[in-house]
Amino acid sequence: MPPSTNLQTLSSGLESLDRILEGPQWGDTIVFHLNSWDEYYPFIELITNFLQVQNIPLHYFAFSEKPASFNTGLSPVFIHDLSRLESLERLSEELFQAFAQNDSHVFYILDNVSELVRMAGAEKELVILLQKISAELTERQAAAYVALERNLLSNATVAQIRDAVPIFLDIQSIDSALYFQPIKVQGRYSEHMFKRYRILEGSVHPESALDFEDYARTLEKKSKEFLELYAQKRDLEKDLQKKGFELSLVNDITSSLLSTMNLDEILFRILVGVTAQEGLGFNRAFLLLVNNEEKMLEGEIAIGPSSLEEALRIWTDLKTRHLTFRELLASFDKEWEQRDIYVNQIVRKIRIPLSERSHLLIDLLAHMQPEIIGYDIPSHRHPEEILRLLEVRSFAAVPLLFRKRSLGLLLADNLVTQRDITADDVEMLETFANYASAAIQHARLYEEVRTRIKESE
Asked: Which fold, 15-207?
């Protein structure tokens, strides 16, 4: 059937939309920038109904393997399946051949041109193709709808396509509501043209302040829900990593501590576990043990550098030795105290009567709770004396407990790196101290049994 020759007007099929766009008009190429086909179909359905009533020929160009289905009615619909073409040049030939075979006042629908990027050597080729299509339709006084899927092309290419066509609409569906906003309408203007609109029950409504507030509230709610879920996911991942690290660390430590009954070796391995990078990663560690005979808390041994230079030397040496964490734990030798002279001089200055309950360390021992002690941490105690002795601004202290009996204290700090000590650090240190306490007590009992056996011989 030949097209109508007396037709002067074109319509989108929705009168209120026509008023906003002052069209569409013959010669227009209208691009719909959208997220999915579901946002395109309502506009296609509206104009198809109009074209059927007006008996205007419709050509549909399918670039995907699932072309749209049309209720053809009285209007002839010609479907061109171009999904199997493999080059943009061949597709262009098919398009312009179809244009050449038709007169004016013919309508064309193109599905998602973003998919053509698979044929194009560069996105620029798509821009050139749409420029040619727009110019051809303007010359022939035909018109077309074109779908452009969001996020498949670069922003720069989308901007060039916007500049290449007469009308460019931004389409979005939010909570099942369909919104559109004209971004460009060439050669036409009204004060209402470039506002945001909602299609509802067959008519177009300006987005009111209430609509915007609802949208803003919905967006805020969804954003909060997403952030909460994301935070929960991150917390779960962090907790899983932490638990995995704890299990691995506990396994290595317990295996190492149970492999010897030599108290000196056990104390060394405790300090290495606290300070090794593969362990808890503190810079220095100090062991203070209760002397029950003399009723004193005494500094026993310590490990760690006294300066940045010494730390770099130690860390470089460890790196060149390529020791695993278990090998490092087992690397006890009698001369290790000679390498950490300064920290051992410090720790042996600590000798406090258990009766001196006002002393910070005795108070920590009595309360049996881990703490972070520092100049900037509020406390009813007076930590200045110990902080000056250790020459740090803060340190962690955890009790060594065995069956609710205090064996001593484990202190750790970050003198060299100045890294803040966190609650997680203290929690790990406490877990570690529980296993260390059991190993110390078992070694002491073993030594007592050995002594008694010797005495009885």
From this structure: Rossmann fold (3.40.50)
